[in-house]
Amino acid sequence: MTWEVLSIVGTVAFAVSGAIIAMEEEYDILGVYILGIVTAFGGGAIRNLLIGVPVSALWEQGFLFQIALLSITAVFLFPNNLLRHWRRWGNFFDAIGLSAFAIQGALYASEMNHPLSAIIVAAVLTGSGGGIIRDLLAGRKPLVLKSEIYAVWAVLCGAAIGLKLVTEPWELYTLFIMTTSLRVLSYSYKWRLPNKNIKAFQ
């Protein structure tokens, strides 16, 4: 049940996130749907390739595809005055998607009895893979490659699940809320990881 809920939450969140960014980039209706679908399912496709699950498994998720399409349609039909604050809402939905999919990816790998390293990689790829593809298709620098703290939260989700620190459904939901909150705080207060600018030395 936890798995299904997280799948639905992550699918809706990333589909909406992709659609909002597509509209900001002034994509036509087809582009909005394509970017929304790619954002919602891209991370899972990459994860499946790396942990040995057939990519064709994605096509068995008909219900989730319907959920994604309905979510994109709803966003596309929203009045423009409700989309003026797209950056805030886009980041919020992205945070929800990151948290839900990172936990789902870690659970997936854990169920397959993969080692801790694979569980963490599955969490990161599922949580941020769709966002990376979305940003690349939108001509933006992927968030996960910036100094902004993003993928770190997926790593922590993977580690918590891989180390069996979180096992019960209520613990998973608590982890989801905490991860989403930390991601919201990190972009609200501009938390950054250390970086090095070599241009200053040229």
TrEMBL record:
<feature type="transmembrane region" description="Helical">
    <location>
        <begin position="92"/>
        <end position="110"/>
    </location>
</feature>
<keyword id="KW-1003">Cell membrane</keyword>
<keyword id="KW-1133">Transmembrane helix</keyword>
<dbReference type="Pfam" id="PF03458">
    <property type="entry name" value="Gly_transporter"/>
</dbReference>
<dbReference type="InterPro" id="IPR005115">
    <property type="entry name" value="Gly_transporter"/>
</dbReference>
<keyword id="KW-0472">Membrane</keyword>
<feature type="transmembrane region" description="Helical">
    <location>
        <begin position="63"/>
        <end position="80"/>
    </location>
</feature>
<feature type="transmembrane region" description="Helical">
    <location>
        <begin position="6"/>
        <end position="23"/>
    </location>
</feature>
<feature type="transmembrane region" description="Helical">
    <location>
        <begin position="116"/>
        <end position="137"/>
    </location>
</feature>
<protein>
    <submittedName>
        <fullName>Trimeric intracellular cation channel family protein</fullName>
    </submittedName>
</protein>
<feature type="transmembrane region" description="Helical">
    <location>
        <begin position="172"/>
        <end position="189"/>
    </location>
</feature>
<feature type="transmembrane region" description="Helical">
    <location>
        <begin position="30"/>
        <end position="51"/>
    </location>
</feature>
<feature type="domain" description="Glycine transporter">
    <location>
        <begin position="5"/>
        <end position="78"/>
    </location>
</feature>
<feature type="domain" description="Glycine transporter">
    <location>
        <begin position="92"/>
        <end position="160"/>
    </location>
</feature>
<feature type="transmembrane region" description="Helical">
    <location>
        <begin position="149"/>
        <end position="166"/>
    </location>
</feature>
<keyword id="KW-0812">Transmembrane</keyword>
<dbReference type="GO" id="GO:0005886">
    <property type="term" value="C:plasma membrane"/>
</dbReference>
<comment type="similarity">
    <text>Belongs to the UPF0126 family.</text>
</comment>
